[in-house]
Amino acid sequence: MDTEERAVFSSAAEHWMVRGGGIDVEIASPVGLRTEEMILNIGPQHPSTHGVLRVVLELDGEVIRRAEPVIGYMHRAAEKLSEYRDARQVLVLMNRHDWLSAFNNELGWTIAVERLAGIEVPERAQWIRTMMAEWNRLLNHLVFFGSYPLELGAMTPVFYAFIEREMIQNLLESTTGARMHHSYARVGGLKDDLPLGFIKQAGVVLEHVRKRLKDFDNLIMGNEIIHARTKGIGVISPEMAIAYGTSGPTLHAAGVPMDPRKDEPYEKYAEVEFDIPIGRNGDSTTGCGCCSSGCTSPARSSSSAWRSSPPASTGRRSSPRSSRSRARCTCAPRTRLVSWATTSSGTARSSRTG
Questions:
Q1: Three-state SS letters, 217-269
Q2: Is residue 255 part of a domain?
Q3: Bridge partners of residue 67, in order along the sequence
Q4: Which is nearest to 188 in space by CA: 270, 118, 85?
Q5: Are residue 210 and residue 330 in the same domain, yes or no?
Q6: pLDDT at position 186 over 50
Q7: Are 259 and 283 in contact (CB under 8 A)?
Q8: Is the same domain home to 277 and 344?
Q9: Is 204 left (phi over 0), alpha (psi -120 to 50) or beta?
Q10: Are 89 and 110 in contact (CB under 8 A)?
Q11: Could you report the per-residue pLDDT of 95-122, keeping only the tens digit for each?
Q12: How many whole angstroms from its chain centre is CA 118?
């Protein structure tokens, strides 16, 4: 008995599968094996914490002929939530936009509020903010270098990257009290000053991380397999990079030397020396190389920040009650928001909300 040949996939089944249904099989004419491109529906899923992505792929064997990202699955509604909260309450929404760069996101929100209100931040707080932003940037890059090779078949880098990441994570936790969502920035300053021993420990961690950055670069950028699987892939022209609003290593890999830390310096970036690696090809290899070279910038910036930061007024972590600064400091112990403000006579006055 002869077996009828059937098409593996058909265009008629494409729309049915994309909508979440099953797969129809068409009977082809018995003139050899006939195949069609395979439509693979990936997602909705969380490729990174936390942003939902769905991609519809058209495959020809192992070759991706077409990829259509389906956007619109954002579920947080932070913009609408912010309409019903004050500046202090919105802070916890901002650091959840990118879990790997929580402090940098909450810092952006805090700076915006300060500029609107015309609030001046003490110099020491600006230096600490700069340092924490660069530590957080380095944390972000280490996660990328650990996870990106996993997509290319390399498993070793993730174990190396998380060793140094944990060291930096513990350093930030000792200051902010949180490992992921720090909520350390405040309008007008910071939640707390640096704890005792932070500068010494930061120096130890920084020296160790600097030595390991070269190993990371050799482990990843010196790997022939990674070069073979990323070279010439995902090329982005300078015009496209600007039109799509890309930033960071993706923008720099396309050859666009734009960086707000250089173009519009905030906090103390104008007084910190660091380089921005710029590529030419705009492909995945160049982007990875820019990110690798960019890891040295946070290390240099963090070192400059804690070396240049003016000393604290006391030898211990300052508290709102004992501070003589005119800057407003807010803290949130459990269920109540307590705001401390120093009067012109030097006495502290408190007000409670919530």
A1: HHHHHCCHHHHHHHCCCCCCCHHHHHHCCCCHHHHHHCCCCCCHHHHCCCCCH
A2: yes
A3: 57
A4: 118
A5: no
A6: yes
A7: no
A8: no
A9: alpha
A10: no
A11: 888 888 899 999 999 999 999 999 999 9
A12: 28
Residue-wise pLDDT tens digits, 129-165? 999 999 998 888 888 888 888 888 888 888 888 888 8
Look up tokens 């021993």; give the residue: 197
Give the Cα separation of 201 and 136 in Å (integer). 16
Domain count, the chain: 3
Which of left, alpha, beta for 232 (phi over 0: left; psi -120 to 50: alpha)? left
Q: Domain of 354?
A: 319-354
Establish if 264 belongs to a structural domain. Answer: yes
In terms of domains, do 138 and 260 share one?
yes
Which amino acid, one-letter code, is at 349? R
Please tell me whether residues 23 and 156 are part of one structural domain: no
Cα 96 to Cα 62, 93, 211, 285: the distances in Å are 36, 6, 31, 29
Helices 102-117 + 123-147 axis angle, to 10: 150
Is residue 244 pLDDT above 70, yes or no? yes
User: How far is Cα 256 from Cα 246, in angstroms, rounded to an integer?
Assistant: 10
**Calpha distance 354→352 (Å, rounded):** 7
| Strands 185-186 vs 337-342: parallel, antiparallel or unpaired | unpaired
